[in-house]
Amino acid sequence: MNDKQSGGRANIGTSSLILIFIILCLTIFGLLSLSSAGSDWKLAEKNAESIRGYYEADSLAVEFTAMAEEVLAQCGQVSSDEEYVKLVREKLGEFYREDTNTVQMDVEMPYGQMLHVELEVCREAESGYRIVTWNVYHSVDYEIDKSRPVWTGG
Hints:
Elements: H1 2-75, H2 81-92, E1 96-97, E2 102-109, E3 113-121, E4 129-138
Antiparallel strand pairs: 1-2, 2-3, 3-4
Helix pairs in contact: 1-2
């Protein structure tokens, strides 16, 4: 009779160990899932901030383009090309580049990026300009840390 009782206890111990192992695995997987979800949330927030920054910069660039179009329309009423260039230079100021005959603007964005807008002044065009460049570039040069902290035993 003693043999039957000791055999039953071994089975209870084995099932308890398996149950503890399963609970431990589920707890670890739950914590890993929670950690992963937190990282995904942070990444989604950064992505949303970046996209929001782009569209804010794009909106400012569209406003700038509308302002340049209005100024170029006012200047277009002048008949001579010399007076036209002089008037454009006066009204657009630092945005106008006479050497390239363009109007340029850079709008700051998050994470060291800039939106560059470049419009070519073109009297023949209906709007008075042609879009040459409308792109995002990195304004801050950064270097990737390639050093590896390796213990040399010292």
